[in-house]
Amino acid sequence: MALRRTWVVAGLGIVLAGTWVVTGISLVPVGLAIGPCLRDWTSPSSYRPRASPLATERFRVGEATVQLCYGRPSMRGRKVFGGLVPYDSLWRLGANEPTRLYTNRALRLGELRLEAGRYALYARPGPAWWTVYVTRSIRHWGNDFSPGVRAREVGHVVVPVTELAQPVETLAIRPDRRDSATAIHIAWERTGVTIPLEPGGRSGDR
């Protein structure tokens, strides 16, 4: 009986360890632990060197702790928007895994209210405006926009494009500051997009 219990405990440990490796701690309530930015080890590309490193941005929005995880592709002489990233097509907002946003408290992303939780972001870039979508699907591969992923969308925000004075070689998605951010800035090539951030909001707002 004791041996059987030992095997059961060991089996549960292996399952939990495997879940950690594949998903980080995405099954743990975000109020207890946000979790690390991990590669998706179910993809063969995660076992090879990457041209687009996985980046982590961790910052505050009021009382909320927020974390961004995204792959950072570079121009490398290519035309990005309207070329590598076609206009009016869905884009993972980075490289490899989906761009993820974790928050342990409710916040507003533009006019969209997000409860505490784990989300993925993707975009439909245009020459003058971007539509940025938010979904609760975080374990799909980057450019997987299947009906299942779209069905888990919680909403979207529309933000204007600004032309940058200097080109940005490698995609950067960063808070305007770390002590209490009020926006997320996206910059690549000569394109800049800013999404306002606020704490909380009234329950049920969208």
Q: SSE layout and pairings?
A:
Blueprint: H1 2-23, E1 54-61, E2 64-71, E3 99-103, E4 107-109, E5 112-114, E6 117-125, E7 129-135, H2 147-151, E8 153-175, E9 183-199
Antiparallel strand pairs: 1-2, 2-3, 3-6, 4-5, 4-9, 6-7, 7-8, 8-9
Biggest sheet strand order reads 1-2-3-6-7-8-9-4-5
Count of DSSP strands: 9
Global Rg: 18 Å
**Continuous helix count:** 2
Order of helices and strands: HEEEEEEEHEE
Question: Would you identify the regions where 5 or more consecutive residues have pLDDT less than 50?
Answer: 202-206
Q: Structural class of the helices, strands and pairings?
A: mainly beta
Average pLDDT value?
88
Query: Proportion of β residues?
Result: 35-45%
Distance between the termini: 54 Å
Biggest β-sheet description: 9 strands, antiparallel
Shape: globular
What is the helix fraction of residues, given as a range? 10-25%
Structural descriptors:
206 residues; mainly beta; nine-stranded antiparallel β-sheet; disordered C terminus
Characterization of the model:
With 206 residues, this protein is mainly beta. 13% of the residues lie in helices and 40% in strands. The protein has helices at residues 2-23, 147-151, and strands at residues 54-61, 64-71, 99-103, 107-109, 112-114, 117-125, 129-135, 153-175, 183-199. It starts with a helix and ends in a 7-residue tail after the last strand. Residues 202-206 have low confidence and may be disordered.
